[in-house]
Design a protein that fits this description.
This protein has helices at 28-47, 55-64, 67-82, 86-107, 110-121, 123-126, 130-145, 152-182, 198-210, 236-248, 251-271, 277-282, 290-319, 326-341, 345-348, 354-370, 454-471, 487-497, 504-510, 522-531, 536-554, 565-575, 593-596, 606-623, 628-640, 648-656, 663-668; strands at residues 185-187, 217-219, 373-376, 388-393, 399-408, 418-423, 434-441. The chain is mostly helical. The chain has a five-stranded mixed β-sheet with strand order 3-4-5-7-6, with helices on both faces. It has a two-stranded antiparallel sheet with strand order 1-2.
Length: 673
Amino acid sequence: MTTLNPFLSSSTLPYGLPPFGDLREEHYLPAFEAGMRLHLDEVAAIAGSAEAPTFENTIEALERAGAVLRRVSLVFFNQSSSDTTPGVQRLEAEISPRLAAHEDAVHLDAALFARVDALHGQREELRLDAESLRLLERYHSRFVRAGARLGEAEQARLRELNAELATASTTFEQNIFADTRAAALILDSAEELAGLSEDAIAAAAENGRALGHEGKYVISLKNFSNQSELASLDDPKVRRRLLAASLARGGESNGGLAVRMAVLRAERAALLGFPSHAAYEVADQTAGTTEAVEGMLGRLVGPAVANALREAEALAAQAGVDGIEAADWQYYSEKVRKARFDIDGSVMRPYLELESVLRDGAFFAAGQVYGISFAERPDLVAHHPDARVFEVTDADGSPLGLFVGDFHARESKRGGAWMSELVQQSHLLGQLPVVVNNLNIAKPPAGDPVLLTWDEVSTLFHEFGHALHGLFSDVRYPLVSGTEVPRDFVEYPSQVNEMWADWPLVLANYARHHVTGEPMPAELVTRMKQAESFGQGFRTVEYLAAALLDWAWHTLPAGAEPGDAEAFEAAALRRYGLALDAVPPRYRTGYFAHIFAGGYAAGYYGYIWSEVLDADTVEWFKESDRTIRESGEIFRRELLSRGGSVDPLGAFAAFRGRAPEIEPLLARRGLTG
């Protein structure tokens, strides 16, 4: 009965945490249907009001509307990513096009847009505060970009395109989910895993048991191309099998789907008055124009490729071969790092235990920089038994929100790492934030320590940076809350947070041997930092290959026929000068979820666009004569707390004192030569 559906009323738990102990899969569909119906009733009341439009009875009213739909959507899409089931997948396939149609029903409501448009035309006379003015401008832009000014026939076609794209996106994601699990590498003996650490081999055995392959060893694939185990596996045949499985994912199931989506997006962009989907997307980002994006990426390709080719020569010399293959690149990179810097990634793992990295690393750094503290709340139930809930308190003792950490890989979770919200911060709605971090760290046998690679430590700090962005939000309106910022800006705060992972005070606090408690030797830390410089060419090229592959798919004009997906991909990489056989793109088309199943279509460039701001900000922290705590307060006040309530680049300039400069990024990436 719908009267018993927990989604239909506000949660009574602390911070509005969804009542996961009471939620059942069968609650979702009735809640979605009731939520859409109630939302449309609220929208109709706003649009049909006999009163003249005001900011309060139109814009604020829209912000208050749709509470049930918002609640069920946030919980459902968190589960569909982190703990899916066949039933959830079926519902996602059904509900996605219906949600797209619902969004169209709101944004293409002529009477509603007339009210928003009238207010936008009067915005100078309304004398709104800065956040309210920003909200009005965002609403107006959303309606226009959604097609509110199109004619009836064009809007009808737009609805068709949006529905088909929503279905295709869900299918693409579910295909990746299935293909990635089917492509897991199953090995018969521990000897085949020679080179991996003992705990990593034990985790592979535990993974095999969990996946129904008792007595075997299973390496589940992560969502990117170059699997981390390639750096350690001694057997070249196993390395080749692992990389081949990774690169082949989604080719058959998603290739045609990617082509279709690119064609549909190009048609939709043309309908809305843009020459390509990329032009449509970038117009609403901080980059502003496709020329700005192409100029920045183009500046990086030549130096990055030259850097990667120098690295390839060093690897070939180490391996004693004429040329290095893709499956061997990471393996011999580790050999070169060991020879040049006397460091082995596996030597660091005993000092990087998950609980210590979390509590004595990420939480400790947040306390040092921002004055906040974390207390675990075992009395609060999260979305999965592996997920843990922490209450976050500000320096003055006031409550900030809840942080939910879900760190382990499992069969029901998609690959990668991400942050999401269960409750958005909003003074208008009286809500404090509830944020979630999802990672995919292999779970060892019960009782064994969870030891991380340095990349996994960096990922934890990165995603925790997104969480802080959400937790520090201090705005009135949900539309501009937390991480509701442009896609080419959203990665910036999280990338900044990575710097605390190797900040001396922080590193010394958490990098301790999990058995002896001894700190990581100072010389190991020094060598680690030196070794990080080797491999920047590879990392930059694999990233640029993915970013420009995304760009190639989404700069297609309407009516273009891309042809075969694999051939299109190969031609695009050649055109951009990135067709290096030994350096595959970080994501190939068939498993590029960011752009075909997420919100990064024509936006994957945003990672390095944001890194310009990030590298500049790290220099600001390091060069300042202020204390870290003083600098943290400025960064939080001027940027992290503002969400999308201000112009993002204006927020950057407010604390940096000038526009961003690219030179720190070039130096970090080894591209200054």
